[in-house]
Amino acid sequence: MAAPKKSVAKESGQEKAGSPPEFSKEQEFKALRDMLLIRRFEEKAGQLYGMGAIGGFCHLYIGQEAVVVGMQMALKQGDEVITGYRDHGHMLACDMEAKGVMAELTGRRGGYSRGKGGSMHMFSKEKHFYGGHGIVGAQVSLGTGLAFANHYRGNDNVSVTYFGDGAANQGQVYESFNMAELWKLPVIYVIENNRYAMGTSVSRASAQQDFSKRGASFNIPGRQVDGMDVRAVKAAADEATAWCRGGNGPMILEMQTYRYRGHSMSDPAKYRTREEVEKVRHDQDPIEQVRNRLLASGVSEQDLKAIDAEVREIVNEAADFAQHDPEPDASELYTDIYR
Amino acid sequence: MPIQVLMPALSPTMEKGNLAKWLKKEGETIKSGDVIAEIETDKATMEVEATDEGTLGKILIPEGTADVAVNTPIATILADGESAADLAKVPAAPPPKAAEAPAAEAKAEAPQPAAKAPAAPVSEARPDPEIPAGTEMVTQTIREALRDAMAEEMRRDGDVFIMGEEVAEYQGAYKVTQGLLQEFGARRVIDTPITEHGFAGVGVGAAMAGLKPIVEFMTWNFAMQAIDQIINSAAKTLYMSGGQMGCSIVFRGPNGAAARVAAQHSQDYAAWYSQIPGLKVIAPYSAADYKGLLKAAIRDPNPVIFLENEVLYGHTGEVPKLPDFIVPIGKARIARAGKDVTLVSWAMGMSYALKAADELAKEGIDAEVIDLRTIRPMDTETIINSVKKTGRAVTVEEGWQQSGVGSEVVARIMEHAFDYLDAPVTRVSGKDVPMPYAANLEKLALPSVAEVVAAAKAVSYR
User: Fold this and answer.
1) Full residue range of the structural domain in which residue B408 is found
2) How far is A40 from chain B (nearest CA, A)?
3) How large a percentage of chain A has pLDDT more than 70?
4) A179 interfaces chain B, CB cutoff of 8 Å
5) Which CATH number covers residue B71?
6) Angle formed at CA A150 by CA A144 and CA A156, multiple of 5 degrees
7) A-B C-beta contacts closer than 8 Å
8) Catalytic residue at B315?
9) How many CB atoms lie within 10 A of CB A88?
């Protein structure tokens, strides 16, 4: 499959010409800062994993930052977010604290799940982040249920339900599509197509590789979005949130993106070439795109470095906290099973 | 010879029905396919079509007759050339059933109209401590008790809703949700597509967002499609979120063997779900417990597995007439007090245990029968106190033996009352086979009263 195209928005597979709407300088700065935070956080998590401070499975989001940051820029207070196990970026985009996320990765009491969830299972009721789910595709039915609750209560909140190109082949995804359209539930299905389901490329696993068409038999509209361009993501998210809040039911957004790292920390990534990764990094990096635009608009290197420094400080503090916070008390073993 | 029309069996568990209406009169011509009568089963009103041609000779059961047993002759049809005078030739009894295999005959408890699961009325052997003395009792079917429990809770709390296949417009595949759509409307009584995995997940998601769904599975057998959402999402989220995000949800529907529906529709899931920390598992027997425990389950802030029994739906029992009758989750009930041997059972197993206790009494063995009611958390204390008194115990369940709930009861007795035991504890259970279809084999696959009696006598060295 070809590398994701730049600045392309397709409507159900049909190309629409034109660049996404420009961001204001303020929006560019916010996007840059939020994407950088995710990138630096994930790099640090990778380091801590290498040191043995983080155990188990750890799936990094590096490369895909524009998706969650662009989506979040279109959401309002009360909208729910739910995703699979590659979830650190989503949590940071939801404004969950880096310290709490990192401390959960290290299994400490200050973690969002008090050390009992780990990388794949984190939640924040306060920030409307509903996990963090380790079973591929399960979050799609759950996210549809969040939308059901919005519909039941008659509020105008939207459930943003993320899943990958791999999960898109699970049966319950289509069971959920059917119910969501049948009942006109306010849910945006964001398919993060990073081109590999673990080690299996989209072309080896998917009969229909245009994921924006995956809702076609349920009459769910879909868009293909350049998931490396945060402006394109934001524009698509604006359209989808308006569609959902307007009572029109669900919408599918296929985000064409790419992960730079392996599937998990233990993945040697032999299923693709180093050149392929380097080419995407060089040509399409979501952070570099914003940085270059800002520089071209006359922002100084100095201003950008200040953002870099702020982000590094947050990440270093989080890493420090996560390594020094005590492990959960032994009594925690038996808490939170029932309430 | 004139043809007899028999009361048809219109569902796997139907034992009798009401003859609601005759649509043909005596002397009328009947063609094959004509609707001749309407029969009310416990689930629905069904039309009876003629399969033979001729003239309706005589109506044997007048319309409006209630509780007509399956296979009772209800009318005769005269073939061409026959007259009323030929009616005398009709044999008095229905055609004979196939002879049962000897082994099944030996264990037969009582003659039954057709090979059906045990059908005695649910007995309320002892007053329940949850019911204040002097409370007025109403006689209800278990189906009605369940419906009332849901309706009461839905009136009480606007966040409670029910979803599942055929729960709304069809009024419930087993009529358990009858009338709920009319009272609460389509917003709160929701027909789902046939999509167990998906709607279980939708229910759990709605519960994470703070609603209190009742998810009905048409049978628990179909819930295997959804078991990932029940275990991985519903049961574990509270723990994985460090207590932030739980889910108040009830999964309910018929569990275990119905009658003659064979292997894929006759399985007891009590043991499966009882293994999972984070779930509560309820399997009641009496009508009052069905109601009081379902209300408790709906109010419980945790995911609850509520295992019903299709065979029991039509059975009646006494339900207390109280404005808000709740039976606490996790408490067993001594259904019959005794001193010689403890029978520990739950759900449909109770029907064998109680009858066995009656049989044992005739032989001078005074059995105490414990109805666990809740499988998880299990009321170990009630079991242990009883065993300390009797020194002997038998578990009775329709489920399989290996890693079964009975095995768990035995382990707890061994751990907590070993020194009080006068004999090894014995398990009576469903046989270690998929449920067969043939009536005689099905009967053999299920436990029997005779097996419970034999086990109780064995542990009593009698």
Assistant:
1) 333-460
2) 25
3) 95
4) yes
5) 2.40.50.100
6) 120
7) 141
8) no
9) 29
Question: Does B325 reside within a domain?
Answer: no
Contact A101, A89 (CB under 8 A): no
In this predicted structure, the answer to whether residue B119 has a pLDDT above a threshold of 70 is no
Distance from CA of B380 to the nearest CA of A (A): 18
Report if residue B363 sits inside a domain. yes
Q: What is the dihedral sign for C-alpha B332, B334, B340, B344?
A: negative
Give residue A121's region: left, alpha or beta (phi > 0; psi -120 to 50).
Answer: beta
According to DSSP, the β-strands at B249-254 and B303-308 are: parallel
| Cβ atoms A159, A187 nearer than 8 A | yes
Residue B106 pLDDT > 90, yes or no? Answer: no
User: For the packed helices B142-156 and B287-299, what is the interaxial angle rounded to 10 degrees?
Assistant: 30
Percentage of chain B with pLDDT > 70? Answer: 91
Within this chain, do residues B211 and B259 fall inside the same structural domain, yes or no? Answer: yes
pLDDT above 60 for B424: yes
| Number of domain units in chain B | 3
Model confidence at B40, in pLDDT bands (50, 70, 90)? confident
Split at pLDDT 50, 70, 90, the class of A10 is: very low
Residue A262 tokens read as: 């392996």
Q: Cβ of A110 under 8 Å from any chain B Cβ?
A: no
User: Percent of chain B at pLDDT above 90?
Assistant: 75
Domains of chain A in sequence order: 9-13+22-325 (3.40.50.970)
Flag whether B116 is in a domain: no
Active-site residue, B196 included: yes
Q: For B227-265, what is each residue's pLDDT tens digit?
A: 999 999 999 999 999 999 999 999 999 999 988 899 999
Please tell me which residue in B265, B397, B398, B451 is annotated as part of the active site.
Answer: B265
CB-based contacts of A207-210 (< 8 A; 24+ apart in sequence):
A209/A1, A210/A13, A210/A254
- pLDDT above 90 covers a percentage of chain A that reads 92
Residues B205, A115: C-beta atoms closer than 8 Å = no
Q: Flag the least confident range among A39-43, A141-145, A276-280, B87-91.
A: B87-91
pLDDT for residue B4: 87
Domain match, B296 and B260 both: yes
Do B192 and B227 belong to one domain? yes
Q: Which residue has the tokens 């595949």?
A: B173
Q: Is A14's pLDDT higher than 80?
A: no
Residues B408 and B261 in one domain: no
Mutate to test the interface with B, among A105, A152, A177 (most CBs of B within 10 A): A152
Boundary-marking domain end, from B38, B63, B78: B78
- B38 and B145 part of one domain: no
pLDDT, chain B, mean: 91
Q: Does residue A155 sit at the B interface (CB-CB below 8 Å)?
A: no
CATH of the domain at B451: 3.40.50.920
* pLDDT for residue B118 is more than 80: no
User: Does one domain contain both B295 and B211?
Assistant: yes
A128, closest residue in chain B (CA to CA): B209
Query: Residue A142 is nearest to which of B193, B205, B246, comparing CB atoms?
Result: B205
Give the gap in angstroms from C-alpha A141 to the nearest C-alpha of chain B: 5
Q: Backbone phi, then psi, for A2, in 5-degree steps?
A: -65, 155
Which chain B residues are within 8 Å of A187, Cβ to Cβ?
Answer: none
Check whether the bond before B377 is cis (ω within 30° of 0).
yes
